[in-house]
């Protein structure tokens, strides 16, 4: 399984995980409160400066992390162009900025620090939901997402090597089975270490 934390050490790595998550929540709320494209671009400016201040390599990695968003940007842009809806630009700016901010926090925060924050926040829910179980579920989700994407890419590549047809929906079943197989193996590993899964 992969981690999304950047190996490039930056000033943001030294900030507490709790502070970064609080700032991310506040920033996201602000983005949804703003309506005009100019106000949204002004709100995005500190984030752009913060990413640029982390260095060229880190900024390049941050931009690369936005690639999976491209199909959604194209679909939203086309929809608003076809329907002649003037609210398309604010939606696109908000979406890209929010994802870039979340990526920035994820790339500069160790997963163990995030889990510790989630466990602290989940303590009041202990009677109905064990904090450790919630933290583990979130950690597995974060770590499994890039693994699942990589597995889907491998299956699509294998399909293209054997068939001239586009893979499309045809790789859905093998990707799902591969994900279930990985989940089963992780559950066995957790049980072997004394956990419950």
From TrEMBL:
GO cellular component labels: plasma membrane
TM annotation in the entry: 12-32, 38-58, 65-82, 88-105
InterPro entries in alphabetical order: ABC/ECF_trnsptr_transmembrane
Species of origin: Cypionkella aquatica
Location in or out of the cell: Membrane
Protein topology in the membrane: Multi-pass membrane protein
Keyword tags: Membrane, Transmembrane, Transmembrane helix
Classification via Pfam families: CbiQ
Family statement: Belongs to the CbiQ family.
Protein name, entry field: ABC transporter permease
């Amino acid at each position: 399984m992969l981690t999304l934390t950047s190996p490039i050490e930056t000033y943001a790595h030294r900030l507490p995980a709790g502070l970064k998550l609080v700032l991310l929540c506040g920033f996201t709320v602000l983005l949804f409160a703003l309506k005009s494209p100019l106000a949204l671009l002004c709100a995005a400016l500190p984030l752009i400066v913060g990413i640029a201040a982390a260095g060229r390599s880190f900024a390049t990695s941050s931009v690369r992390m936005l690639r999976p968003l491209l199909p959604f940007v194209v679909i939203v842009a086309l929809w608003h162009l076809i329907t002649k809806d003037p609210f398309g630009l604010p939606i696109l700016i908000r979406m890209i900025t929010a994802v870039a901010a979340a990526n920035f926090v994820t790339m500069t925060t160790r997963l163990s620090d995030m889990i510790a924050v989630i466990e602290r926040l989940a303590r009041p829910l202990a009677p109905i939901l064990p904090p450790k179980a919630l933290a583990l579920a979130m950690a597995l989700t974060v770590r499994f997402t890039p693994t699942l994407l990589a597995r889907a890419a491998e299956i699509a590549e294998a399909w293209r090597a054997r068939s001239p047809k586009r893979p499309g929906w045809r790789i859905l079943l093998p990707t799902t089975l591969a994900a279930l197989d990985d989940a089963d193996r992780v559950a066995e590993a957790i049980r072997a270490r004394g956990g419950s899964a």
